[in-house]
Amino acid sequence: MSWHLDAVIYQLHVRTFCDSNGDGIGDFPGLTSRLPYLQDLGVTCLWLLPFYESPLRDDGYDIAHYERIHPPYGTHDDFRRFLDEAHARGLRVITELVINHTSDQHPWFLAARRAAPGSRKRDFYVWSDHTSRYAGARVIFSDTESSNWAWDPVARAFYWHRFFSHQPDLNFDNPGVRRAVVKVMRYWLDQGVDALRLDAVAHLFEREGTSCENLPETHAFLKAIRSDMDRRYGSRVLLAEVNGDAETVRTYFGDGDECQMAFHFPLLPRLFLALVRGDARPIIQAVTATHPLPDGCQWATFLRNHDELALSTLEEHERATVLDACAPDTAMRLHGGIRRRLAPLLGNDRARIEVAFSLLLSLPGSPVLYYGDEIGMGDDVRLPDRDGVRTPMQWSDDTHAGFTDARARRLITPLIDDATYGYRRINVAAQINDPDSLLSRIRRLIAGRRAHPALARGSIEFLQTGSDAVLAFARTHGSETVVVVANLSSAVRSIGLVLPAQTVGLPLVEIVDDVVFPPAAATPYPLSLAPYASLWFACAAAGAPA
Ligand code: TEU
Ligand code: CA
């Protein structure tokens, strides 16, 4: 088991992936019809953004009913058919468990605001007569919210919210809440999902005099739900979404008894910093600070997701460097991060995009690809909030990009239709049979990773290259070592690569392009690298099974 240790995860939104019935809204039958594409890409796991009943004021992270599917996305049967079909194709499925908060339209909140102060129902949420409680908690959505408290005229009290004011936080001190969220967890595990992404999980409890983040009570609760899950379901997985520094995020693995996975938020901005500066050191620092993990645990690494690119774990001057280079226009910025997709963030430079994927797919961690980035989709900063990075998947140059029926009158969100990134140029159909396309390159990278378990499960050792601009590391698992070399700069680099002792004298085969290099008779091994070039060398000990 332990499929999560070598997963290649694809993140998508049912609503923007494929529409089957011409109403302009993506749905489960549409997604199911696109499973062959995902299987062919080579990913092994799908992560679905929230698809539950919701007023959609936070794109579904504002849940109004945990066990119902938002009707336009399909029925329960449609979901079951999708899940069965995904499993039949060997694809695992991660769904969202958003338990820090609900929508203010959730029946629990509608009841709480009318219930008597101090009653069980009222105490499903966190209330106060004044806004000075928990003053140590920062405001996360700093561009849109000014306080973590909002006035409710029905309850005649303030309620606590870490995100939008229409998303009241559940009160985890109430045992009724803890029981209710465990019931939700079991409901989706009973449906057969393989893993749950724990949204905003750092914020479950509040305590006076603290930042109200990462509290011991939160960790205790996570250990409790993990043991409940293990006892009842065996090998299911919890994935923590905690945007924090290395030390903080690492605590969510516990001693291997909390979450088996956590997003690698500390690495993310350092990948961009490294590419902006042409300097490998931020990556080495982030990986060194977060390795190794307890047995059975794995990072979920990513380049982009559905949110803004979070820069909060960088030093002030580092953040300024990335913002200046990647988000020169203030419209591209949100909550201190950047609301752009991968291709635009990297100046639509094909070589830089490829090296970013090369690192994503070779550094420790199970990689998460954000839908559309595999074809180099763009964004639309004119759309509100983070909608600009959540536009419909571009399947072809047909009407509506092949996302929906040509007769559909209105799409859930506008397509990208500009000269550079518009669907007429950037689409799956144009790339799928072209061996030189970005999509084909990424398919080969994924295949190379899956063929070499050292890239998923191996240890990591950073190698000397004589140049800060060139990152090199060895991943070793059993008798196999894979050596990765990446030029992070826009200049040609000539280096002497200090190879690990066990690889000297072995033939070097570049995995992605299947090219045999001269054996490394001695170390350092001389190499010349084009701007942003990356190479993956397989070196298997002679006579040993790879
Ligand atoms: O985000 C939770 C969260 O902690 C964010 O601050 C995130 O770290 C930040 O946006 C940096 O990328 C989750 C969802 O991912 C987000 O889409 C929701 O809006 C949010 O919860 C509230 O529900
Ligand atoms: Ca539809």
SSE arrangement:
Elements: E1 9-12, H1 14-17, H2 28-33, H3 35-41, E2 45-48, E3 52-53, E4 65-69, H4 76-88, E5 92-97, H5 107-114, E6 127-128, E7 149-152, E8 157-160, H6 175-191, E9 195-198, H7 216-233, E10 237-240, H8 246-250, E11 261-263, H9 267-277, H10 281-288, E12 298-302, H11 316-326, E13 333-334, E14 337-338, H12 342-345, H13 350-360, E15 366-370, H14 428-432, H15 438-451, H16 454-457, E16 459-462, E17 470-477, E18 480-487, E19 493-497, E20 508-510, E21 515-517, E22 525-529, E23 534-540
Parallel strand pairs: 1-2, 1-15, 2-5, 5-9, 9-10, 10-11, 11-12, 12-15
Antiparallel strand pairs: 3-4, 6-8, 7-8, 13-14, 16-17, 17-18, 18-23, 19-22, 20-21, 20-23
Calcium ion binds next to loops.
Summary of the model, kept short:
The chain has 546 residues and is α/β, with parallel strands linked by helices. 27% of the residues lie in helices and 18% in strands.
Give short descriptive properties of this protein.
single chain, 546 residues, alpha/beta, TIM Barrel, Oligo-1,6-glucosidase, domain 2, Immunoglobulin-like, 3 domains, eight-stranded parallel barrel, six-stranded antiparallel sheet, 18% strand, globular, binds 1-O-alpha-D-glucopyranosyl-D-fructose, binds calcium ion
Protein described:
It is a single chain. The chain folds into three domains: 367 residues, Glycosidases (TIM Barrel); 54 residues, Oligo-1,6-glucosidase, domain 2 (Alpha-Beta Complex); 84 residues, Immunoglobulin-like (Sandwich), CATH 2.60.40.1180. It is an alpha/beta fold and 546 residues long. The mean pLDDT is 97. It binds 1-O-alpha-D-glucopyranosyl-D-fructose and calcium ion. 1-O-alpha-D-glucopyranosyl-D-fructose binds next to loops.
